[in-house]
Amino acid sequence: MTKVITYGTFDLFHEGHYNLLKHAKELGDYLIVGITTEQYDLTRGKLNVVDSLITRIDNVRATGFVDEIVIEDHTGQKVEDIQKYGVDIFTVGSDWVGTFDYLEQYCKVVYLPRTKNVSSTMKRTDRSPVLNIGIAGTGRVAERFPNEIKLVSGANAVGVFNPHYDHAKPFMEKHELAFWTNDYDEFLDKIDAVYIATPHETHYDYAKKAILAGKHVLCEKPMVFKKVEAEELFKLAKDNNVVLMEAIKTAYCPGFKQLISVARSGVIGDICDVEASFSRITAPDKREMNDLKYGGAFTEFGSYCLMAVIKLLGKDYKDVRFESVKMDNGLDAYTKAHFTYENALATTKNGVAVKTEGGLIVAGTKGYILAPSPWWLTTNFQVRYEDPNKIDDYTSKFLGSGIRYEIAEFTRAVGNLRNGEPNASANIYMLTRGESIALAGIYEKFLSQRNN
User: Fold this and answer.
1) Neighbours of 18 (CB within 10 A)
2) Paired residues of 273 in beta bridges
3) How far apart are CA 36 and CA 227, in angstroms?
4) How is 382-447 classified by DSSP, letter by letter?
């Protein structure tokens, strides 16, 4: 008996999948199909899976070609499965030619021709049109966006806006976008959604204008510096049936989501304290070192740490106070924020001219979580207990600059809205509307204290 094995996500099952399985079955007598888990797809950077694992299994089984189904959930499993099941032939579509030649030491490798003019990406387009996103801003963060969006199916970067045309045009040419403009109204007319990566103080005006024009908004952090402005923007988004989302990339990455889930699972007991740090020695000519109104350590890096505190302990803190070490120009070189909750405490530390250990510690009544620096690019963390010999290790990939994760969530939310899900912004659990409003309120208190 000749055993054949193939693997895939098999999302939005289509003719190409059917033909692949049909031809794979023709190669032998017994066909094994490995179907990837959503978590494994995330670690591989595949951020566009729509159907659940159960649905994908049912669709593959319904073809009648498959004798056995296995679940692929980790790197290296193909080699394990080939040996475990005594596989004679490994096969996959021709778009992977050469990728799996290393398996030839274990079995025969066959690349099957793929079905032309059909793909899961095209099926996604049928279900929900591609989201054409314009980039507002051309600075350091905006530079990462065009490359990251290429890894998220269902979204496309089409153009760039900057009030200074000598910045916008080179950005367009470098990233091969369709257009550039220094006219924001013209910019909005050509896009479905906007990614705002302009200076902090411009976020409110650009976001409001986009929302009123019926455009979805993904806005870099801090989204705004006043609680009332955040409340207004989210209300406008709801009234205009568009998605508004704050772009704190850590909130959407797999490792940090896992950390939050573990912390809330009860394995460390009741959470009693959170300590989060993010600092960087910044060049003296950068905006955050010289913008006397909106620069400084806390406004530049505080979002990451504040987000962690809010996600772990909630929005309803009793008190927050700030302590800062200032530079000669009055901006904070280093700031600590101290939070008091009903039954918990939290401290955040941020620096632009002071360097400190960039870890995250979550203390509980049964143990604690330690995420080493740089925790905001969460790839691993440990759960430690009273018994020093008992340590639980968790690992997860953080791919690229991490922006792809927030783009994927933003695209998903827009797709849900297009498919009739009301108030999609309110259903983004990774960073909720209420949490973004709470962050704006904390910034408002800090700036009020600093300005006074």
Assistant:
1) 18
2) 345, 363
3) 42
4) EEEESSTT-EEEEE----TTSHHHHHHHHHHHHHHHHTT-TTGGGG-TTS-HHHHHHHHHHHHHHH
Which H or E element spans position 137? Answer: none
Gap between the Cα atoms of 249 and 257, Å rounded:
11
Residues 6 or more apart whose Cβ sits within 8 Å of residue 228: none
Question: In this structure, what token pair is assigned to residue 350?
Answer: 């941020």
Find all residues with CB under 8 Å of 280, minimum gap 6, and list them: 301, 351, 352, 355
Contact 160, 134 (CB under 8 A): yes
Beta strands at 345-351 and 271-279: parallel, antiparallel or unpaired = parallel
Q: Which residues, 6+ apart, have CB-to-CB distance to 83 below 8 Å? A: 106
The neighbouring-strand residues paired with 37 are none
Q: What is the largest distance, in Å, between two alpha-carbon atoms of the chain?
A: 81
In whole angstroms, give the CA distance from residue 447 to residue 229. Answer: 15
CA atoms within 13 Å, Cβ hemisphere of 325: 9
E strands, 198-331, in order: 216-220, 244-247, 271-279, 319-326
Instruction: Give the HSE-up count for residue 419: Cα atoms under 13 Å, Cβ half-sphere.
Output: 13
pTM of the model: 0.78
Evaluate whether 3 touches 30 at the Cβ level (below 8 Å).
yes
DSSP assignments along 224-262, one per residue? -S-HHHHHHHHHHHHHTT--EEEE-GGGGSHHHHHHHHH
Q: Residue 219: helix, strand or coil by DSSP?
A: strand
Q: Give me the tens of pLDDT residue by residue for the chain, a chain 452 residues long.
A: 999 999 998 987 888 899 999 999 999 999 999 999 877 876 666 666 778 889 899 999 999 999 999 999 888 999 999 999 999 999 999 878 999 999 999 999 999 987 655 444 444 445 557 899 999 999 999 999 999 998 887 789 999 999 998 999 999 999 999 999 999 999 999 999 999 999 999 999 999 999 999 999 999 999 999 999 999 999 999 999 999 999 999 999 989 999 999 999 999 999 999 999 999 999 999 988 999 899 999 999 999 999 999 999 999 999 999 999 999 999 999 999 999 999 999 999 999 999 999 999 999 999 999 999 999 999 999 999 999 999 999 998 788 899 999 999 999 899 888 877 665 555 678 999 999 999 999 999 999 998 77
